[in-house]
Specification:
five-stranded parallel β-sheet, alpha/beta, UDP-n-acetylglucosamine1-carboxyvinyl-transferase, Chain, 30 helices, 5 domains
Length: 987
C-alpha cells in the first residue's frame, strides 16, 4: 500500500486548523503525572506519539481522562504505582527518552520497552548517565527493553553528550525527584537547545526549579522537590503548521493557518519557532489576520537560504522540500544529528534527486539547488512521519503521480495531515481502499465525493403518500449548496446552532448537510414536540434560525412558534417555513421575527458561491447538538463532533460488513440519533441510498422496502413489531431486507424469534446511547440466542465492563453497573460541565446507568436501569427476566415492572401490562403462570395493573419514571383478586 500524490497546477485555497504542540503535550502530561493533585491540560493532541505517552503513564498508574478538548491528569506526587510489569513507549522516542529515568520513581520494578524496531535503537549514553544518577537498570544490549528498579535515584554529577536534547531533558525531568542534588553537564556539541529551553520553562510552570548556565551546558537541580498541579493551554504546533506553510508557498494560494496567531517572539517557547523565520527568509508572504496566519500569492517564487539546523533538526525534511524549488543553492548546516531520528532524515531527502532535484549530502551539510518543477517518482518514507509528509508536499509540484511507502506514517505526529492538505486543494490518497481514518472526512466532503463519483445515482428516496421523490447525489449536492447559501444570508456562521423541527423528508437531509457545509451545528427537534419543548430547546441552543413545517399531522408548528413569547424565542431571529404540500408555505403573522418561505429562500443560483467555497469545516468541530428525549427527566444537550459521527457509522459498516449494494431504510425519526446517525449519516458514509418515511405506516413501509430494495434498517422495537404484523396480515415479505438492528429497548425474545421467522431477516440486538453512539452489536453470523437474546458484543475499539458499586470488575454472568469506553464519546453536555464530569469514571469510562451482565464470550445483556432496581427487603428483583416471562404470556402485548413503596420491605414490584385485544389476565392467573415457569416467588410482581399503553420515548424506551409516579399511590395486592383499575398514562 502506498500514498499516491498527484501533482497539481491549480490554486490552493481554504483554511487549515493548526493542531496543538506535541512537544508541549508530552512535557505537560508527564509533569502533571508527577504533581500532587489534578492538572488540566487544555488542547487535545491527536498525535500518536502523545497517545503513547498517555498510555505509558496510565500503565504506571496515572489516571488521565479526556474532558472535551482537555486532559485531566490525576498526578501521583512523584511516586508511580504501575498497573503492570511492563510499559511501552510505542514508537515515540520522546516518550522513551523521557520515561526511562522517571520509571525509577515507581514503587516496584518495571520494564520500559517499545515497538519491535525500537528495540534496536541504542540508548547507551542515556543509560550510562542514568546509572551515574543512581538509577538501577539493566539492558541486554543498551537498547530497549530496559528493566528499572523501583527506587529513587541519589542524584550526583552526570555527564551526557549533547547529541539529542531528549536525553538531556530526560535527566532534567528526573533530577528534582532525586534524594540528593544533581548536576547535569553537556559534553561535545549541544544540539536542539530550544527543546531544552522548553523543558526547563515548563518545569518551572509546575513549580520545579532548575538553575541553568548561560551557555545551557550545565543544569543544577536541588533534590526532594514537589511538582504542583496546573491549568494550562497548549499552543499551536509550528512543526505541523510547517506543512501547510510549505504547500501554500509552492503554489498560487490563499490559505489561512487558523490558530497560528503570532509570527514574532511571543511564541518563541516553541522549539521550532525559527522555522517561520526561515520561511520568511525564503520569501513566503505571511501575515497574521482573522484568527490565524494568511499566505496569499499569485506567482510563488522562493529564495535560497543558508540555515543552521542545530536547534531545529526536525525541520530539515520540509525545508528541503521547499528548497528544491528555490532560486539558487540552499545550504543546511549541522545536520548530522538529523540522521539519528526515526530515520536518517538527511539521506532520506536525497531522494529528491530521483524527482529531478539537485541535492548533495556532504558531511554535516545538505546542499540543495532549486529547480522549477519536479517529475513524479517512487519514493520511500522509511516509516518516518516527517519524511513522508515533506516528500508528499514536494510531490504536489511534480508532473504526474508519485508514490510513497508507509502511507499512514503521518499519524505519528499529525493525524489530520491528509484532510488538512486535501481540504485546501492537494490530491493525496491511498488507492485501492478508503482511508482507514474515515472520521477525518467531514459529511459535506463525503457528499462531494459521491456527487463527483456518481452524480446520477440515487442518494435519497422520500416516501410520500401519493408518489415518492427520488434525488440523485448530484441533485442533493445542488440542494445542499443552495440551503447553505441561504443560511449564510440569514447570518448563520461557523459554530452557530441551527434548529429545525422537520419530519423524515428530503429537506431534513438537505438542511443538516447545509449547516455542516458552513461549519454550523445541527440541532434537530423531534416533530411531535409542542411549544413547551421548543421553547426549552431554543432557550438552551440560542439558535438564531429555526426551520419548521407549516403543518404536521393535525398541528401547525409555524403558528405555534409564532405564538411564543419573545422571551421563549430566546434570541430567535429567523423562522423558515416549509410547506407540507410542496407548494407555497402558510406563513404566520408575527412581530419581531423574520419569516421566510423555504422554497423562495432557496430559489435561484448560489449567488455568493465564492463565500460558500471559502467555508472549510474541520472534522473536530461540533456537528450535532441533540437533546436526549429522556427516560428520567429534563433533556440534556449532547454535543457530538463531526469525526465521532463519521467514525460511529464506519464502525457499524465494518462490523456488519455493509457494502455498496446495500440500501438503508429510515423509519426512525431523523431528529433522533437512531435515524440521524444510523440512517442518514451511515448512508452518506457508505455511499448508498437512504429511504425516508415521514409518516409511519407499516403497510406503506412494507411496500417501500420492496420497491426500493432496502437491505438494512436500524430502528426501535415497535417498528419491528408493526412490520411483523403487516407481513402476517398481507402475506407479503420484505424481499431484500437482510438485517434489522433493534435498538432503544431490549427486544423480547418471543418477538425476535417470530420476526426472524416471518421476515426471513437477521434480527440483531444492540446497545447505544446518544452520548457514546453504538457500543455493542450482534451480527447475522452470531448464534441465534446471541443475536436476539443479547444486546450484542463490543464493536471494534470499544471496551465494555461490568463493575460493582465500588468499581470492582465483575466476573462473567454477574450483574453489575455497565460502563463503556469508546472513540465516539460525546463532547460534553451543553453548558453543564458538572453533569459531564459525573458521567465519567476517573479512567474515562462512561457510566451508562444500566445494570447488565457480560457472558464468557463477551455478549452483553442489559438487565435494567440502576434507577429501576427494586430493592425488596434488601434483595434485588431481576426485573428484566420477569418482564421477559410475562411478555411470553399469550394475553400480554406489552409489559413493564417498576417499584411501588412498602412500609415493611421498602419496595415491592408492580407489573403494568398492556393486554391483547379481547384478552384477560388476573392477578391469580399471573401468579399461576410464573409458578409454572419456576420463578422464585420473591421475584413475582405483587400487583398487576392493566393499562392502555406503556409510555415510551421516541426510540421505544419505556419511560418508567412515569410508571413510578403512578405506582407511588399503589400498594401490594393482599388477596388473590384482580387489580381491575386501568390507568391511562400515555402522554
Amino acid at each position: 500500500m502506498h500514498l499516491l500524490v498527484n501533482g497539481i497546477g491549480h490554486r490552493v485555497t481554504g483554511e487549515i486548523d493548526v493542531p496543538t504542540s506535541k512537544y508541549h503535550a508530552h512535557r505537560a502530561l508527564i509533569l502533571a503525572s508527577l504533581a500532587e493533585g489534578v492538572s488540566t491540560i487544555r488542547g487535545h493532541c491527536d498525535a500518536r506519539h502523545v497517545h503513547y505517552t498517555v498510555q505509558l503513564l496510565r500503565g504506571l498508574g496515572v489516571t488521565i481522562t479526556r474532558r472535551g478538548n482537555a486532559y485531566e491528569v490525576h498526578g501521583l506526587g512523584g511516586r508511580y504505582r504501575p498497573r503492570r510489569a511492563s510499559v511501552s513507549a510505542g514508537s515515540s522516542g520522546t516518550t522513551l527518552y523521557f520515561m526511562l529515568g522517571l520509571a525509577s520513581l515507581a514503587d516496584r520494578p518495571v520494564t520500559v520497552t517499545g515497538q519491535k524496531y525500537f528495540r534496536r535503537r541504542p540508548v547507551e549514553p542515556l543509560l550510562r548517565a542514568l546509572k551515574q544518577m543512581g538509577v538501577e537498570l539493566q539492558s541486554a544490549d543498551n537498547c530497549p527493553p530496559v528493566h528499572i528498579a523501583g527506587a529513587r535515584p541519589a542524584g550526583g554529577h552526570v555527564k551526557i553528550p549533547g547529541t539529542l536534547s531528549q536525553w538531556i531533558s530526560g535527566l532534567i525531568l528526573l533530577a528534582p525527584f532525586a534524594t540528593g542534588p544533581s548536576t547535569i553537564e553537556v559534553e561535545g556539541e549541544l544540539n536542539e537547545r530550544t527543546y531544552l529551553e522548553l523543558t526547563v520553562a515548563m518545569m518551572r510552570q509546575f513549580g520545579l526549579q532548575v538553575t541553568v548556565s548561560a551557555d545551557w551546558r550545565r543544569f543544577d537541580v536541588e533534590p526532594d522537590q514537589q511538582a504542583r498541579p496546573v491549568d494550562l493551554s497548549l499552543p499551536p504546533d509550528i512543526g505541523s503548521a510547517a506543512f501547510g506553510v510549505a504547500l501554500a508557498a509552492l503554489h498560487p494560494s490563499e490559505v489561512l493557518l487558523r490558530g497560528l496567531t503570532s509570527l514574532d517572539g511571543s511564541a518563541a517557547d516553541h522549539p521550532e519557532f525559527h522555522f517561520l523565520d526561515a520561511a520568511r527568509a525564503m520569501g513566503v508572504p505571511m501575515r497574521v489576520t482573522g484568527g490565524g496566519t494568511l499566505i496569499r500569492q499569485d506567482a510563488p517564487r522562493l529564495r535560497a537560504i543558508d540555515w543552521d539546523l542545530r536547534d531545529m533538526p526536525d525541520m530539515l525534511p520540509i525545508l528541503s522540500a521547499m528548497a528544491a524549488f528555490a532560486d539558487g543553492e540552499s545550504v543546511f548546516g549541522n545536520v548530522a544529528h538529523t540522521r539519528l531520528k526515526e530515520s536518517d532524515r538527511a539521506a532520506a531527502m536525497v531522494q529528491l534527486n530521483a524527482m529531478g532535484a539537485q541535492v548533495e549530502l556532504s558531511g554535516n551539510e545538505l546542499r540543495i539547488r532549486g529547480v522549477d518543477r519536479l517529475r513524479a517518482a517512487r519514493l520511500r518514507s522509511y516509516n518516518d512521519h516527517r519524511v513522508l509528509m515533506s516528500l508528499a508536499i514536494a510531490a504536489t509540484r511534480a508532473d504526474g503521480g508519485s508514490t510513497l511507502t508507509y502511507p499512514r506514517a503521518y499519524r505519528i505526529s499529525y493525524p489530520g495531515f491528509l484532510d488538512a492538505v486535501n481540504g485546501v486543494g492537494a490530491e493525496m490518497s491511498v488507492p485501492g481502499r478508503e482511508s482507514e481514518d474515515v472520521s477525518r472526512v467531514t459529511l459535506p466532503q463525503w457528499l462531494r465525493r459521491r456527487a463527483q463519483e456518481r452524480a446520477d445515482e440515487v442518494a435519497v428516496v422520500d416516501v410520500r403518500r401519493d408518489s415518492d421523490l427520488v434525488v440523485t447525489w448530484g441533485g442533493l449536492q445542488d440542494r445542499v449548496d443552495r440551503a447553505a447559501a441561504m443560511l449564510l444570508r440569514l447570518g448563520v456562521r461557523r459554530g452557530d446552532n441551527v434548529a429545525y423541527q422537520l419530519p423524515n423528508r428530503i429537506e431534513f437531509v438537505v438542511l443538516s448537510l447545509a449547516a455542516l457545509r458552513i461549519g454550523a451545528v445541527c440541532c434537530p427537534i423531534m416533530p411531535f414536540f409542542r411549544e413547551r419543548e421548543i421553547a426549552f430547546v431554543l432557550g438552551r441552543a440560542r439558535a438564531q434560525v429555526l426551520v419548521v413545517a407549516d403543518r404536521y399531522r393535525n398541528r401547525r408548528p409555524a403558528q405555534e412558534v409564532a405564538g411564543l413569547s419573545e422571551q421563549d424565542r430566546a434570541g430567535l431571529r429567523h423562522l423558515v417555513v416549509l410547506s407540507e404540500a410542496d407548494g407555497t408555505a402558510e406563513l404566520p403573522d408575527t412581530s419581531g421575527l423574520a419569516v421566510h418561505d423555504w422554497d423562495q429562500a432557496l430559489t435561484g443560483t448560489v449567488a455568493d458561491r465564492a463565500v460558500l467555497d471559502e467555508q472549510n469545516p474541520t472534522p473536530d468541530l461540533h456537528a450535532q447538538l441533540l437533546f436526549t428525549s429522556g427516560t428520567t427527566g429534563e433533556p440534556k444537550g449532547v454535543l457530538q463532533p463531526s469525526h465521532n459521527l463519521v467514525r460511529a457509522a464506519a464502525m457499524e459498516i465494518r462490523f456488519l460488513g455493509l457494502g455498496p449494494d446495500d440500501a438503508i431504510w429510515v423509519p426512525s425519526p431523523l431528529a433522533h440519533q437512531t435515524g440521524f446517525l444510523y440512517g442518514m449519516v451511515l448512508a452518506l458514509v457508505l455511499g448508498v441510498p437512504q429511504i425516508l418515511q415521514s409518516e409511519w405506516n407499516a403497510k406503506r413501509a412494507l411496500r417501500s422496502l420492496n420497491e426500493h430494495r432496502a437491505t438494512f434498517v436500524q430502528a426501535a422495537t415497535p417498528f419491528l413489531s408493526d412490520l411483523v404484523e403487516a407481513v402476517e396480515q398481507s402475506g407479503d415479505v420484505p424481499e431484500h431486507l437482510r438485517i434489522f438492528v433493534a435498538t432503544g429497548a431490549t427486544v423480547p425474545r418471543t418477538l425476535a424469534e417470530r420476526a426472524t421467522r416471518v421476515l426471513d431477516t437477521a434480527v440483531c440486538g444492540a446497545f447505544g446511547t446518544t452520548e457514546t453512539c453504538l457500543g455493542a452489536l450482534a451480527t447475522p453470523d452470531s448464534e441465534p440466542a446471541q443475536r436476539w437474546g443479547t444486546d450484542g458484543r463490543a464493536l471494534d475499539g470499544v471496551e465494555l465492563r461490568i463493575v460493582d458499586d465500588e468499581g470492582r470488575a465483575q466476573p462473567p454472568g454477574v450483574e453489575g453497573n455497565f460502563e463503556l469506553r469508546s472513540g465516539t464519546m460525546f463532547g460534553g453536555y451543553l453548558d453543564r460541565p458538572g453533569l459531564t464530569g459525573e458521567a465519567f469514571t476517573p479512567d474515562g469510562f462512561y457510566r451508562t446507568g444500566d445494570l447488565a451482565t457480560l457472558d464468557e464470550h463477551g455478549y452483553l445483556r442489559i438487565t435494567g436501569r440502576v434507577k429501576d432496581v427494586i430493592n425488596r427487603g434488601g434483595e434485588k428483583i431481576p426485573v428484566a427476566e420477569a418482564e421477559q416471562l410475562l411478555f411470553e404470556h399469550p394475553a400480554v402485548a406489552d409489559v413493564a415492572i417498576v417499584a411501588m413503596p412498602d412500609e415493611r420491605l421498602g419496595e415491592r414490584a408492580c407489573a403494568f401490562v398492556v393486554l391483547r385485544e379481547g384478552a384477560e389476565l388476573t392477578f391469580a392467573q399471573m401468579q399461576e403462570y410464573l409458578d409454572g415457569r419456576r420463578m422464585a416467588k420473591q421475584y413475582w410482581p405483587e400487583r398487576l395493573e392493566a393499562i392502555e399503553a406503556l409510555p415510551r420515548n421516541p426510540i421505544g424506551k419505556v419511560q418508567k419514571f412515569k410508571l413510578r409516579v403512578v405506582a407511588a399511590d399503589l400498594r401490594p395486592v393482599n388477596s388473590r383478586t384482580t387489580a381491575e383499575k386501568a390507568i391511562d398514562i400515555d402522554g
